[in-house]
Amino acid sequence: MDYLVVGITSYLMGSIPFGFILTKIFLKKDIRKIGSGNIGATNVLRTGNKLVGYSTLILDVTKAIIPVIYVKINFPELIYIASLCSFLGHVFPIWLKFKGGKGVATYVGILFSINTLLGIIFITSWGIIFLMFRYSSLSSIIGALSIPTYLLITEGPSSFVFFTIMFVLIFFTHRENIKRLKNKEESKTKIY
Fold first, then answer.
1. 20-31 burial code (b ≥16 CB/10 A, e <16)
2. DSSP letter string over 140-151?
3. Position 190 in a domain
4. What pLDDT digit, counting tens, does each position of 55-107 carry?
5. Residues of 147-179 as b/e, b for ≥16 C-beta within 10 angstroms?
């Protein structure tokens, strides 16, 4: 029963579409009709409103932190279920016909909740690649790959499997970006 409650609660928390909500309230726009049509922070930044963009980022990180930290304290054996379900909630939100964001900000919240060092590794990897190439999508993919790579070297296969699954999911959510990167059509991202 705990599995079900944790899974559903984490999914519902993760599925709150903050990018959609904030752009509707403050910009009177539908984010799904702007830029890539994605509800995540990177696309919200394309509206030109940095406050709404960064608020989306913070809230998308926080909506993973809340359920994962709660489960970490009260049901530690279910932490990966809470993590996966909150991520899937963001990518496939029930409120928007299962068409959500790419999950990167939510994944960052998961990483910092599970182990601060993993969050730092992701942010560092993301930042280095972004400074080199200015592609948020490429930075996210490399950042996600850095986690199972680090865990394989330092801890062995236990948590490596979960974070490999998470990498595959992030790779999947960025499949259109990957096509654009290959065709040299991907837009560079301005974050300031």
1. bebbeeeeeeeb
2. HHHHHHHHHHHH
3. no
4. 999 999 999 999 999 999 999 999 999 999 999 999 999 999 999 999 999 99
5. bbbbbeeeeeeebbebbbebbebbeebbeebee
Look at residue 191 and tell me if it is in a domain: no
Q: How far apart are CA 59 and CA 55, in angstroms?
A: 6
Decide if 174 is inside a domain: yes
Contacts of 107 (CB under 8 A, 6+ apart): 64, 87, 122, 144, 166, 170
Q: Name, in order, each residue with C-beta under 8 angstroms of 110's C-beta and a sequence gap of 6 or more.
A: 64, 68, 83, 86, 87, 166
Gap between the Cα atoms of 16 and 59, Å rounded: 9
Token readout for 5 is 């409650």
pLDDT value, residue 41? 93
Q: CB-side exposure of 6: number of CA atoms within 13 Å?
A: 20
Would residue 73 count as lying in a domain? yes
**Domain span at 17:** 2-182
| Domain count across the chain | 1
